[in-house]
Specification:
Layout (H helix, E strand, L loop, with lengths): L1 E7 L3 E7 L3 H11 L5 E7 L8 E6 L5 H25 L1
Antiparallel strand pairs: 1-2, 2-4, 3-4
Helix pairs in contact: 1-2
């Protein structure tokens, strides 16, 4: 995965996320929207095989990059839990 910052402000970030599709971006935006400091979390893919652009805006002075990091860590934790459960069986 390669990430390029297209726009960065105090409460907004827009990223190009190369090599990812709907699966990861759906999970990421869903997790971001659980954060009460996140106002908008959405992505756009212009064409089927183009790189998606993720847009995140925040409230209350929250850093949108930190919100993305936290959401990614939570998703990673879900994956670790699933893998651990599979290994137990």
């Amino acid at each position: 995965m390669s990430i390029k910052i297209l726009e960065l402000g105090k409460d907004k970030v827009r990223l190009a996320v190369a090599g990812e599709g709907h699966t990861f971006l759906n999970a990421l935006t869903s997790e971001l929207l659980k954060n009460p400091d996140v106002d908008i979390a959405k992505y756009h893919m212009e064409f089927q095989f183009s790189d998606p652009e993720l847009t995140v805006t925040t409230n209350n002075g929250a850093d949108p990059i930190e919100a993305i990091k936290a959401a990614c860590m939570t998703i990673s934790g879900y994956c670790d839990t699933i893998l651990s459960d599979i290994e137990k069986k």
